[in-house]
Design brief:
The protein is an all-alpha fold and 301 residues long. The chain has a single domain (29-298), classed as Na+/H+ antiporter like fold. It is built from 14 helices and no strands. α2 (27-50) runs antiparallel to α10, α3 runs antiparallel to α4 (86-96) and α4 packs across α11.
Length: 301
């Protein structure tokens, strides 16, 4: 619960700092740059290096890829039907397609399923959400950003994306043991991600944009908090016949609110930043209720 309290307080601090003008207007861009270049790569080097690959991880890890694929198809269709701008469609695909399975998801899994559920949650986050974000998320951000970059430019963005570089290095270093001082260093740097990300979202949040984006916000959160986990439930439980606590936790992670870092990347690529930040802020708030409902539904799986 301490982690959840930290997230809430940092989000409030961000709003207060902006409200009372105690921080420069461009501070969120600086925080976002630090997160992308330092915090996220440090966590990648730490947690990807610790993973032990096995065949039973596949179904758990596949969830994030499936949710993102469903998001891309759903919002592409909605974009054509509702005549959404490319920046809005891209923001919805990116932010609604990626769940906050780490800094919000891990504490929530521990609250509802205990510490024994964390190993499954880490697989869903690191092999699922992170890989999806680093590859498909950055690709979508490039496709829908202004200027319509070429395939070569999108590939370059993925390859040069700092967390992706950290991912490659972490995989290469898997056979080797990190020194204790290096593990402590990575953990300390990685611990900055959650508080800085929530402060950044709080700084960028403009509730005055709520009325302007209420339809798109409702559509994005309906997909992320209800439709996506429901579709994964029918796929895994009804079609595949999967059961057990690992599946419960996987479906629970599918119901997580939008990923904070996805909103940051959406802002960096000018994909409707007000909508992206509203989805994170409102989604986090609503998910305290919706996750309790999903936990109750999933008890029999």
């Amino acid at each position: 619960m301490n982690n959840l309290l930290l997230l809430v307080l940092c989000f409030i601090f961000g709003m207060l700092l902006r409200r009372f003008k105690r921080i420069p207007e461009n501070a969120s861009a600086t925080l976002n740059s630090f997160i992308i270049h330092v915090s996220f790569p440090a966590l990648t080097l730490l947690y990807i290096h610790q993973l032990k690959f096995s065949s039973d991880m596949l179904l758990v890890a596949a969830m994030a890829w499936l949710v993102f694929g469903l998001s891309a198809g759903f919002f592409w269709l909605m974009g054509r039907w509702l005549h959404l701008s490319p920046s809005t469609t891209g923001a919805l695909i990116l932010v609604a397609g990626l769940g906050n399975t780490s800094f919000f998801g891990l504490p929530m899994v521990e609250v509802f399923y205990g510490k024994e559920g964390l190993s499954t949650a880490i697989v869903a986050d690191q092999l699922g959400s992170f890989f999806t974000f680093a590859i498909l998320g950055i690709t979508i951000a490039g496709i829908y950003s202004s200027g319509r970059p070429t395939l070569v430019e999108i590939t370059k963005r993925i390859v040069l994306f700092p967390p992706f570089i950290g991912l490659i290095i972490a995989v290469v270093l898997m056979p080797f043991t990190y020194a204790d001082w290096f593990v402590i260093l990575l953990k300390r740097l990685g611990d900055t991600l959650a508080p800085l990300a929530l402060v950044s979202v709080g700084l960028q949040l403009r509730l005055g944009h709520l009325a302007e984006h209420k339809r798109d916000l409702a559509l994005g959160l309906f997909f992320k908090l209800f439709l996506a986990p429901l579709l994964i439930y029918f796929l895994y439980v009804e079609l595949f016949g999967a059961h057990g606590q690992a599946i419960q936790i996987t479906l629970f992670e599918a119901a997580m609110p939008p990923m904070i870092t996805a909103a940051i990347v959406a802002s960096e690529h000018n994909l409707n930043p007000p909508l992206a930040n509203l989805m994170v802020a409102i989604g986090l708030t609503l998910s305290f209720l919706t996750l309790g409902g999903w936990w109750w539904v999933l008890r029999g799986v």
